From TrEMBL:
One Pfam family matching this protein: MecA_N
InterPro entries per the UniProt record, alphabetical: MecA_N (IPR007887), NTF2-like_dom_sf (IPR032710)
Stated name of the protein: NTF2-like N-terminal transpeptidase domain-containing protein
Annotated organism of origin: Listeria fleischmannii FSL S10-1203
Region (Disordered): 182-208
GO biological process, one term: response to antibiotic
Gene3D superfamilies xrefs: NTF2-like, domain 1
Length: 208
């Protein structure tokens, strides 16, 4: 009888644990969809509410500064037609986080950008699941004080390199462009420079 009572007691607990996990899975997936939907709609001023305050604080950003960084870079590059694909949310190493991956395709003022692959985590903050933000969610490889360069090659072939001349990718044709993260230069102005088929976008207000 005691064994039967133990089974009857354990089953509801296991069922509750299963339901709670399923609920967390759904909420984390919803958080990922909300973030990427706002991004695809180019509603950059609404992204701040979709990310954890802790991730911004750890990087020294406010919500407004993060949103302005998207606006400055994406608008400066003439980004449009953002498409999200391969959105995946999977349980992390512990019950407090999820792994997030997704791809973005977009058009720029110089042509179609090659598919960009993103990854981050989703954490629970103030009873809500939100994306842990980092600059690499603007473009993969970016860090806090990076600028980006948009490059194309009239010869229909070329390499995309980082600031250390390490090849990141090869441009297959003239209508595809590549992003190169680089350190910000001096000055606090928002600039866009054209040298042939090169654009450089600097963040509007550099943080020190």
């Amino acid at each position: 009888m005691a064994f039967r009572h133990l089974l009857l007691y354990l089953l509801p607990v296991e069922s509750l644990f299963f339901v709670l996990n399923k609920s967390a899975d759904k909420q984390a997936k919803n958080a990922a969809e909300e973030f990427t939907n706002q991004l695809a709609a180019q509603k950059y001023t609404q992204l701040g509410d979709q990310v954890t305050s802790k991730s911004l604080k750890d990087l020294g950003f406010t919500k407004k500064e993060m949103e302005e960084k998207y606006e400055t870079i994406f608008n400066g590059l003439g980004v449009k037609n953002i498409k999200v694909s391969n959105l995946n949310v999977t349980p992390g190493e512990n019950s407090h986080s999820y792994q997030l991956t997704y791809d973005l395709n977009m058009q720029t003022s110089l042509g179609k950008l090659k598919t960009q692959n993103y990854k981050s985590t989703i954490s629970k903050e103030d009873d809500a699941w939100k994306v842990d933000w980092l600059p690499a969610l603007i473009f993969p490889g970016m860090v806090k004080d990076d600028k980006v360069r948009l490059l194309t090659d009239e010869a229909k072939r070329g390499d995309i390199v980082d600031r250390n001349q390490k090849k990141l990718a090869t441009i297959g044709n003239f209508n595809e462009a590549g992003i190169v993260p680089e350190k910000l230069g001096e000055g606090d102005e928002k600039t866009k420079k054209h040298h042939g088929h090169q654009s450089e976008i600097r963040r509007a207000s550099r943080r020190h």
